[in-house]
């Protein structure tokens, strides 16, 4: 049975994690499916619970820069970004320190590790109560829409994990932005909840997008998929469709942001997909401007609309 814990029950959740069990918890981006990041068994259980097709590397969640320094050698620009944006929706990929206590399975055999200090107070409280790094991909079955509420987590993973800590709806609503480093130069590995423009401003240099195949589940084309068919850049609603609108869209069944605010739209995106998927076989989506958080929103929408095998 999967328990639903309130933030007051954080000690029960931390105890379950210490016993090697899996606990879903809120972050400001999406809910994470957490397990002990030092334990190959716990990390293997995460892949099993998600039904992930392959062992892709996971993000390790830590409390702060000091905890990151125990695990990885942060390049100069990584430290600058961590100081500017942690805790927050930014993941940094850096070389693992020799002898660091990290599950090799979490790194999927790579010499680097992805690290993030989440800003959600309940996520931070869980990290403090547990006292170690938590490996945590988004808490959804592989290939499905990411969860932004405890109810979404329960709908996808109930019976497969020890519990969920309910911290309400996630504020950002999109996974973190992932930055790697190539000879010390920043590279965008995944657009996400922190607009790349902010990163470029702090580093005072352009951040190039990664070219070619990142070995990343977030990079699988058909990811974040609803059951319903998805039609993008819709300017009308066709019979049988429910419209997810943006800006002025009087026919919308749900509107990501009537005022055209991309931050509000990001926060509502996954919940809107979950909601429309439950009531319609076909979903149309208004076009979303491709700047700021719109880049990450469009990335997720294109993946959700991509042809799939199943
Ligand atoms: O917002 C988020 O980032 C959420 C919440 C729960 O924190 N987590 C999340 O984790 O989205 P996950 O496992 O779904 O995404 C991990 C991403 C993948 O695209 C993975 O390939 C990439 O991080 N990644 C992890 N380690 C990497 C590495 N060493 N090199 C390159 N990419 C890496
Ligand atoms: Mg995911």
Please give a handful of descriptors for the protein shown:
single chain, 310 residues, alpha/beta, eleven-stranded mixed β-sheet, 9 helices, 19% strand, globular, binds threonylcarbamoyladenylate, binds magnesium ion
Walk me through this protein's architecture.
There is one protein chain. This protein has helices at 10-18, 40-50, 65-71, 76-85, 121-130, 150-157, 196-203, 262-279, 294-305, and strands spanning 3-5, 23-25, 32-36, 59-61, 90-95, 112-116, 134-135, 163-165, 177-182, 185-190, 208-209, 229-231, 241-245, 254-255, 282-285. The chain is globular and about 60 Å long. By secondary structure, it is of the alpha/beta class. It has an eleven-stranded mixed beta sheet, with helices on both faces. Strands 12-15-13-14 form a four-stranded parallel beta sheet, with helices on one face. A hairpin with a 6-residue loop joins strand 2 (23-25) and strand 3 (32-36). The chain is built from nine helices and 15 strands. The structure holds threonylcarbamoyladenylate and magnesium ion. Threonylcarbamoyladenylate binds next to strand 5, strand 6, strand 9 and strand 10.
């Amino acid at each position: 049975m999967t328990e639903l814990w309130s933030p007051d029950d954080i000690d029960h959740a931390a105890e379950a994690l210490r016993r090697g069990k899996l606990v879903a918890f809120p972050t400001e981006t999406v809910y994470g499916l957490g397990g002990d990041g030092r334990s190959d068994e716990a990390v293997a259980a995460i892949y099993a619970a998600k039904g992930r097709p392959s062992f892709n590397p996971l993000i390790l969640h830590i409390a702060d820069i000091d905890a990151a320094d125990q695990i990885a050698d942060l390049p100069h620009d990584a430290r600058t970004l961590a100081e500017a944006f942690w805790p927050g929706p930014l993941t940094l990929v850096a070389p693992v320190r020799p002898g660091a206590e990290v599950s090799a399975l979490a790194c999927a055999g790579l010499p680097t590790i992805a690290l993030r200090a989440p800003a959600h107070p309940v996520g931070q409280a869980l990290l403090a109560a547990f006292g170690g790094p938590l490996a945590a991909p988004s808490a959804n079955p592989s290939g499905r829409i990411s969860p932004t509420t405890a109810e979404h987590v329960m709908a996808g993973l109930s019976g497969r994990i020890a519990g969920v800590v309910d911290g309400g709806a996630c504020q950002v609503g999109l996974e973190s932005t992932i930055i790697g480093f190539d000879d010390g130069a920043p590279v965008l590995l995944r657009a996400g909840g922190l607009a790349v423009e902010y990163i470029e401003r702090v580093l005072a240099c352009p951040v190039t997008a990664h070219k070619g195949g990142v070995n990343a589940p977030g990079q699988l084309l058909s990811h974040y998929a609803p059951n319903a068919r998805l039609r993008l850049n819709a300017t009308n609603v066709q019979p049988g469709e429910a419209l997810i609108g943006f800006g002025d869209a009087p026919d919308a069944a749900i509107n990501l942001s009537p005022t055209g605010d991309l931050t509000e739209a990001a926060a509502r995106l996954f919940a809107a997909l979950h909601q429309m998927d439950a009531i319609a076989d076909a979903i149309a989506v208004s076009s979303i401007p491709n700047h700021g958080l719109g880049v990450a929103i469009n990335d997720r929408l294109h993946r959700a609309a991509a042809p799939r095998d199943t």
